Amino acid sequence: MIFILIDDQNYGLKDIENSILASGTDNNEIKIIWYDSFEAYKKAGRRYATAAFLDYHLDIDGIYSSKIVDQINAKYLIGFSSRQPGSEKIKISAVESGKFLANSVFAVTKQDGTVNNDKLIKVLKAIISAEGI
Fold first, then answer.
1. Distances, alpha carbon 34 to alpha carbons 24, 38, 80, 87, 132, in Å
2. Using one digit for the tens of pLDDT, what is the confidence trace for 70-79?
3. Bridge partner list, 105
4. What 3-state DSSP class applies to 74?
5. What angle do CA 87, 128, 58 make, to 5 degrees?
6. What is the pTM of this model?
7. 23/58 Cα distance (integer angstroms)
8. Residue 133 in this model has a pLDDT that exceeds 80
9. What is the mean pLDDT of the chain?
10. DSSP E strands, 60-133
11. What is the pLDDT of residue 102?
């Protein structure tokens, strides 16, 4: 499985990694690729991912990810902002774009990886289970 994170800051990686382990899945089952900007993701060929994590404000690009959700090549999309309203806006935009079904889009508040992110663990368990891992 491939997960991507599009975020100008990389501390969300630790949150994702810790939550994968806490979900009971071996980190070797999932490859996480971090892009520091939407432009970097596009330059990499908009690689397909099982799940894409998007920060709300992509500082390097100067855009809000709610505006580019339809250009993300993934089965699941997770709004992954440090503030829940940003994550919710991404989720709503993804469903409204018509590219993602409501049951494949989630809104999670990003944490720094020093504490368990219970909501992210729950989301990852659902995705991993649905994917048969």
1. 22, 11, 13, 18, 24
2. 999 999 999 9
3. 77
4. strand
5. 25
6. 0.94
7. 28
8. no
9. 93
10. 63-64, 74-81, 105-109
11. 93
Contact 11, 113 (CB under 8 A): yes
**Model confidence band, residue 57 (pLDDT cutoffs 50, 70, 90):** very high
What is the sign, positive or negative, of the torsion defined by CA atoms of 23, 91, 34, 47? positive
Looking at per-residue pLDDT, the higher value among 84 and 115 belongs to 84
Are the C-beta atoms of 86 and 67 separated by less than 8 Å? no
Strands (E), 36-125: 49-54, 57-58, 63-64, 74-81, 105-109
Residues 12 and 58 sit within 8 Å (Cβ to Cβ): no
Q: Over the range 42-71, which residues count as b (16 or more CB within 10 Å of their CB) and which as e?
A: eeeeeeebbbbbbbbbbeebeebbbebbee
User: Token pair of 7, please?
Assistant: 């975020």
CA distance 122 to 24: 11
- 111, containing H or E segment: none
Place of tokens 């992954």: 80
Q: Edge to edge, what strands does the sheet with 31-35 contain?
A: 31-35, 2-6, 49-54, 74-81, 105-109
